[in-house]
Amino acid sequence: MLKDKTALVTGSTSGIGLGIAKALAAQGANIVMNGFGDVAGPRAEVAALGVQTAYHPADMSKPDDIAAMMAYAAEQFGRVDILVNNAGIQHVARVENFSVERWDAIVAINLSSAFHTARLALPAMQAAGWGRIINVASVHGLVASVEKAAYIAAKHGIVGLTKVIALENATSGVTCNAICPGWVLTPLVQKQVDAKAAALGLSNQDATKLLLGEKEPSLQFTTPEELGALAVFFCSPAGNNVRGVAWNMDGGWAAQ
Ligand code: NAD
């Protein structure tokens, strides 16, 4: 379905971003990957699906790096047809104890980077008459929890940005939507499980149960594969008139 299209997925060396990159590659899209840590392994997983891959090491907190990545993607594949803004980090502390440096980093990576990639990707999408921008927000783009001020402010912000981009392009073939996962067992969440286990003297299994039980009625993690399938839906013809939604896949979290 996505043969001859190019998808750029930020933060695709791990977790949800890698899951979405693989789902889009399975539909034939060439993939521009980004993110830190091991690159060769995740890139080989995507390439094994029979598509072309490229990688750019841009730090999503740096607008100049982002501009270089977007130029590199255009140079490699002509243009970006599908932009997935996924890179994100977390930090947990009450507002009065929240590090200013962590606040700035979270807002830059989880929110401002999506403005920069989108502003640079949109002109070519508009000229082509087709494009998809998919923002990986969070259920925390819809509801709040304690001790996550920067993350929740950034995720509510990206849901708002999603709606503006959708409206500004509403009469064109360019759509913009957000995905709002509940808990997904990735390194980002494992750190929170580990912190809970250490603070309460629990096993990994008991801390995981407690984490899910506090928020997610299904008591199950959402998987990167399920989120990848939703991204594919947004890119399908059935998604042509889905514009500006913030679609939660959260085991009932936001329904409470
Ligand atoms: P993860 O830690 O597994 O992956 C994060 C990815 O972002 C990695 O590839 C990492 O290298 C990259 N990254 C981090 N900082 C970066 C930077 N400055 N520049 C470029 N890349 C950077 O985390 P994940 O759980 O897969 O999270 C992916 C997205 O999903 C995030 O936006 C997160 O907020 C969101 N999310 C996660 C969950 C969850 O439960 N895991 C729930 C809701 C939303």
Give a written overview of the molecule.
The protein is an alpha/beta fold and 256 residues long. The protein has two domains: 6-184 and 222-255, Rossmann fold (3-Layer(aba) Sandwich), CATH 3.40.50; 185-221. The chain has helices at 15-26, 40-47, 63-77, 100-128, 149-168, 187-200, 204-215, 224-235, and strands spanning 6-9, 30-34, 53-56, 82-85, 131-136, 174-181, 246-249. It has a seven-stranded parallel β-sheet, sandwiched between helices. Helix 1 packs parallel to helix 2, helix 1 (15-26) packs across helix 8 (224-235) and helix 4 (100-128) runs parallel beside helix 5. The longest helix has 29 residues, at 100-128. The protein is globular, with a radius of gyration of 18 Å. The model has no long low-confidence stretch (mean pLDDT 98).
> What is the fold-level CATH name, i.e. the topology of the largest domain?
Rossmann fold
Span from first to last CA?
36 Å
Assign the CATH superfamily of the largest domain: NAD(P)-binding Rossmann-like Domain
Q: In terms of structural class, how would the helical and strand content be classed? A: alpha/beta
Cα radius of gyration in angstroms = 18 Å
> Which percent band covers the strand fraction?
5-15%
Which small-molecule ligands are present, each listed once?
nicotinamide-adenine-dinucleotide
Please give the CATH class of the largest domain: Alpha Beta
Mean pLDDT: 98
Low-confidence stretches: none
Order of helices and strands: EHEHEHEHEHEHHHE
Give the biggest beta sheet.
7 strands, parallel
Helicity, in percent?
A: 40-55%
Number of helices: 8
The main sheet orders its strands as 3-2-1-4-5-6-7
CATH architecture of the largest domain: 3-Layer(aba) Sandwich
Instruction: Characterize the quaternary organization of these chains.
Output: single chain
